[in-house]
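re the bet — no i am not wrong, look at it urself. input seq straight from the record:
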Amino acid sequence: MWQCNGKYDGEKKCGTSTVTEEEIQKGFERMLRQMDKQAQIVNLREIYADVMDYGDLEQEKERLEAERGGVSGSYEKEISQNARVAQDQAEYQKRADELASEYGRLDVEVKTVEAEIQKRQLCGRRIETLVAALETAGEDFTVNLWGSMVEKVTVFEDGMVFTLTSGEDVRV
C-alpha cells in the first residue's frame, strides 16, 4: 500500500486514499503502452547531445586553473621575498592577503565549474540508462525498467503522473 507523503502531517490529515502496488504497476504498464518509445529515444538523444556538450566548461576550468596557478606562484614569490628582503610587514601582509583572497575566489570558481561538469556527466549517464531501458522495454512492469525510468509517481483521483528520470511527466 502507498499513501500520501503528508497523510499524517499537521492538524488536517490528507484525505487521499491509499494506492496498491498493483495499481501503480498497472499504471506503469499503461504508460508504457501509450508512450511512443522511438520518439522518446530520439528526443533523449538530442537532450544527451546538448547535456554532454560541455567543452566550453572544460576550457573555462582550464583557464581558471591557470589563473589560480599564477596567483599561487605570485603568493609563493611574496613569501620568498619577505623571507629574503626586509620590508614593511603591513604592506607585505596586505599583498599576501589580496593574493590569498584572489586564490580563494578562483578556487571557488573552479569548483563551481567542476560541479557543473559532474552534474552534466551524471545527467548524461541517467539519459543513457533511460535510452537503454526504452530500447529494450516491453509493455510489462519489471523492477529494472521501473528503476531506470521512474523518478516519482504522483497519484490523483483521476489518474497518475509518472515523472521519468529525464524530467518528463507522463499522465495516465
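see?? Helices lie at 21-34, 37-51, 55-84, 89-136, 143-149. told u. also Residues 21-171 form one domain. so pay up
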